[in-house]
Amino acid sequence: MGDAISVEELQLAARNHGMPLEALRWDVTPIGLHYLLTHYDIPDVSVHSWRLEIGGLVERSQSLSLDEIRTRPSVEVAVTMECAGNGRVHVEPHVVSQPWLLEAVGTARWRGTPVAGLLEDVGIRGDAVEVLFTGLDRGVEGGEEQAYARSLPLSEILAGDAILAYAVNGVPLPPQHGYPLRLVVPGWYGMTSVKWLSSITLLSEPFDGYQMRHSYRTRQHEDELGEPITRMAPRSLMVPPGIPEFMSRSRVVPAGLCELRGRAWAGESEIAGVDVSTDGGKTWQEAELDDDALGRWAWRAWRFTWDADPGDHELCCRARDGAGNVQPLEAPWNVGGYMNNAVQRVAVTVTE
Amino acid sequence: MGDAISVEELQLAARNHGMPLEALRWDVTPIGLHYLLTHYDIPDVSVHSWRLEIGGLVERSQSLSLDEIRTRPSVEVAVTMECAGNGRVHVEPHVVSQPWLLEAVGTARWRGTPVAGLLEDVGIRGDAVEVLFTGLDRGVEGGEEQAYARSLPLSEILAGDAILAYAVNGVPLPPQHGYPLRLVVPGWYGMTSVKWLSSITLLSEPFDGYQMRHSYRTRQHEDELGEPITRMAPRSLMVPPGIPEFMSRSRVVPAGLCELRGRAWAGESEIAGVDVSTDGGKTWQEAELDDDALGRWAWRAWRFTWDADPGDHELCCRARDGAGNVQPLEAPWNVGGYMNNAVQRVAVTVTE
């Protein structure tokens, strides 16, 4: 973990929001505690003039009001969403961008209409291969003025569970979560779920805008193209036990039995297990996984009973998925500082 | 402004939440955008077992359920709340604590029952001089294990507008704002408005707990007592105009007429005026103040039309209150980095 961050990085940390890790205790993250990454500014949207424009390689272009979208078939899905830059501060050498530690995650119940059904209704032309989602949030990045825009393969949309969401946890989207309408793509890192959606455009070739071509790729060197970032790698986080010291955030726990609790999630394959270490990752024991009451796309709760001896300890947890992927002990490095799913480490002092 | 902050400070910035300054556009800050400073952890409170204990120098001690508090007379008041540490990153020499830039503010409509009426109903004994409010949030600070606790003079409570709030912006308090009940003291810095309230205790002497004796005082040296921090000094902030550059957050604005908008507030005396500078504080012009539709305890909106010439500019705004206090150009310094209400500076590039 680097020693210092710049005031430019702090400006991002001060306006974006992490989920304090004690909020892992809730199955569904309360509004206001879910992580929040806003590339530019939260736009000021009037729902009266707002329309979703659907165009490009479709049979019938559409300009839909929110009411028209709300009358379509709807589903509600619990989704764990994580920023692809979560864990960035822990990678070395240091990468300059939004300086997340581990808190860029949250789970919400999103209600909306499936994207696949909407596109089938407007008619997909045979030469369409990608679906471009463009937001109303505008800014300058890499010297380019742009609206935030990301694409997905059409096949991914047709086979997947992506929705256009207008409600979260039972209420209309608040401004910061994409009011009046956003994309939610279960299993993928958060950059995919474009907020403040203004248009959906079907394309005959992959979109090469800034957020596809430059950002959100794993590259070992600035001058290589790298691989696009897609689904969330396995991760587990625990509620830090005991009470915190204000400044260091180190924890104080009384000796004796201590139930550790946390959550684990993965985008490619389901969570297969969670292991806990109470000696800084030297030895591991399996935690008990709760059932998947929230469904495939949300985190799984786990618990582990620790018999805490007086002294200093380092607690760790690591998730494994069904494809055999497991969280590493050391942070992986790439140019953007993405997808660092190294195990969490929690310093704890156990008192007599 | 210092060059770097530590990872310890970043840990605080990542879990506490600033209000992105574009949210100044809303009269009442949407839930999830209001600033949030949690000293320790957000506690896990079951409303079924929760009680508010009222004791100390009262005629009839009470143990009240939330339902009992909700049946009392209620008021709703719009309150602008700001952290006493807002602006801390801009003070020099650098002060290590929660590293706020300017975003530790928000306005909410709090509903609850007046504290004065509740205390009168339980009977105030003649020797009571202070009212102590204790929260359920526990941690270690300055080497002392403590529940967060702050007091106010009884005279301040009896003459003032403090309420015990159980709802915000029309909904029950979310966990992070003090569920199920918190104190809200209009006009005072945020540390006064104790969250997750567990008890109210009337005392015969001033309370000297850590948050009164050590924190939240203006001291020039560690070894002096200093003065307690009370009401908010005047401050004005503007919505940064145009669009941002992702990393630097500098702004790009097209040439021509540009309406600058912002808010101003003060805790001692009402806002008397707001001035705007478009040349980094060398010259000032008066902004137009909106009416005080939100009432005495909330921010006042202001606007100023700027004829933006191409080139680089530094925009500033400063508030004046009715007692003649005005925001300084340079940050004041004290040991805790409190009450820095120096003028905001916004770097803007105007394009042809």
Notes on the structure:
Two copies of one chain form a homodimer. With 352 residues, the first copy, chain A, is mostly beta strands. Chain A has two domains: 7-228, Oxidoreductase, molybdopterin-binding domain (Sulfite Oxidase, Chain A, domain 2, Alpha-Beta Complex); 235-351, Immunoglobulin-like, CATH 2.60.40. Chain A has helices at residues 7-15, 66-70, 115-122, 154-159, 210-213; strands at 4-6, 52-56, 62-64, 75-82, 105-114, 130-141, 144-153, 163-168, 171-172, 182-184, 197-203, 217-218, 227-228, 235-238, 243-244, 251-254, 256-265, 271-277, 285-286, 288-289, 300-308, 311-321, 344-351. In chain A, the strands form five sheets. Chain A has a six-stranded mixed sheet, with no helix packed on it. A five-stranded mixed sheet of chain A has the order 3-2-11-6-7. In chain A, strand 6 (130-141) and strand 7 form a beta hairpin. In chain A, 50% of the residues are buried. The mean pLDDT of chain A is 97. Chains A and B meet through strand 1, helix 1, strand 6 and strand 15 of A and strand 1, helix 1, strand 6 and strand 15 of B.
How would you sum up this structure in a few lines?
The structure is a homodimer of 352-residue chains. Chain A has five helices and 23 strands.
